[in-house]
Amino acid sequence: MARGRPRTFDRDTALAAATRLFWERGYEATSVGELTEAMGIRPASLYAAFGDKKSLFKEAVAAYGRSPEGAFVARALAEEPTARKAFTRILHEAAAIYPDPSHPAGCLVITAATNVALKDAEVETHLRDLRNTNLKTFEARLRTARADGEVPASADPEALAHYFGAIIQGMSQQARDGASRRTLTDVADQAMRTWPEPADSPRQSAKEPGSV
Length: 212
Known about the structure:
By secondary structure, the protein is an all-alpha fold. It is built from eleven helices and no strands.
């Protein structure tokens, strides 16, 4: 039989509150006291249920990654039949999600570990590794697109992956600076105009001679 007092709070609800606070303020600017207040628990309960602040943050990041706001990139890559459609969907969903006033602006994985103290470098490294994993996923999808003839043989999947990663990270920051969905949708449309088309594609063939 388990001993001790039973937990008197809903763990998922408490985790959701912590995730939102980390998303809004970032790791460094969020204190344990603010976390326990938002989660409706005592510090001892936080440590008993989640470990320390770093462990709680990593669990919050994982929860964010499973949420609609955090999983849209993976869903688009898995569900769309072509790379072009996947990246078009990713950028347009980012334009809708990042400035949505129903939650903190931008992307938690992009913004939550800036300017962390040296003692918390592990947190910064954790998010950087997640972002770099996303870039590798982009690159793999673009390599498949090149092999399938969806993009020309001259296309550089690694450079394209970093380009789209930079666009997404920039959209997140602009959303935190107050950019609207319409503004970010314009950014998404502009970015997709750079998509490298094969020479024999209908879009490429439809261009006027001398156009770019």
